[in-house]
Amino acid sequence: MRKLIFYGFFISLGLISCGTKQDNSADQTPVVTVKTKAVHLGDISDYLQLNGKTVYLKKNAVLSPLSGYVLKVYVKFGDRVKKNQLLYEIQTKENQALSSLQGVNAGVVKVMSPSGGVVNETTVNEAGGYVAEGTPLCNIAENSQVVIQVNVPFEYSSFLRINMHCKILLSDNTTFDGVVFQQLPIVDQVNQTQQILIRPLGTRSLPENLNLTVQAVKTKHIHSKLVPKSAVMTDETQTVYWVMKVENNRLAVKIPVDKGIENNEQVEIHSPLLESGNLVITEGAYGMNDSTVVKIQN
Fold first, then answer.
1. What is the pLDDT of residue 26?
2. Is there a single domain that holds both residue 63 and residue 209?
3. Which residue in 83, 208, 84, 67 sits closest to 137, CA to CA?
4. Is the same domain home to 197 and 253?
């Protein structure tokens, strides 16, 4: 009898011990600390980014109106000139000989600037040389007529329509607006690109041959479900996507999604299991299993 009581005591003690261990293991369920953001509705755009450069649309070649000697030169490379400003003085061979006899400058022809702008090329820089009629003296670029030239792959040319506004991004991280004003009706035979001209808006002066980026809206979706880019997980093949949705502020549930438009900050998602206001994990979800217990950190 005493043996039975003794054995019964140890059996009861063992059961109590097991129950305590089970309770402790239940209390020791791992909890992962995460950060979350709410799914929200908003607009998102898909942008087409193209390389472009600035060109001066109007360039005026200044030619010698006659054959003769260059008597004086009034401009140099890089000078800004106004319309009808004096550029050169030229004298014919006969008039130069006559001037040497009479002691006065006879038959001097003044060459004036046909337009205002910048002297971006000079052929004749010094006086004393002989030039034939029609010889290029210098070239004047009208810097007020600067445009942006973009060589667009033909399959994308329909996205840059006439009068369409776009963004111009410079290498110094400044931006300004531009508007498409001309599509040249010719395609490069080798590259299959079409030249499109964009007029910059604003008063900023731009040098010629400046490389820049043109950003145009390709597609825009409104009232879409958006999440931070860091909330979207993927597999090694990057063909399957999901987010970790937090339910009851405690349980992380894996929700498969389809991606729409995305940019550097947010992603458009398609899933009937997500609604505006649902919390998704933005930090701490990497490698997380479905139905993981989490603790939200503000």
1. 45
2. no
3. 67
4. no
- In this prediction the pTM is 0.64
Considering only CA atoms, which of 198, 199, 206, 196 is closest in space to residue 171? 206
d(CA 200, CA 176): 8
| Confidence grade of residue 17 (pLDDT, cut at 50, 70, 90) | low
Domain boundary among 171, 201, 220: 220
Claim to verify: residue 160 and residue 52 sit in the same structural domain:
yes
Q: Which amino acid is at 259?
A: K
If asked whether residues 152 and 130 sit together in one domain, one would say no
Domain that holds residue 77: 59-141
What is the rounded distance in angstroms from the CA atom of residue 154 to the CA atom of residue 120?
A: 32
No. of helices (H) and no. of strands (E), the chain: 2, 21
Q: Are the C-beta atoms of 192 and 154 separated by less than 8 Å?
A: yes
Both 234 and 214 in a single domain? no
**Per-residue pLDDT tens for 249-259?**
999 999 999 99
Residue 6 has pLDDT above 50, yes or no: no
- Report strand pairing: 279-283 vs 233-234: unpaired
User: 80: phi > 0 → left, psi -120 to 50 → alpha, else beta; which?
Assistant: beta
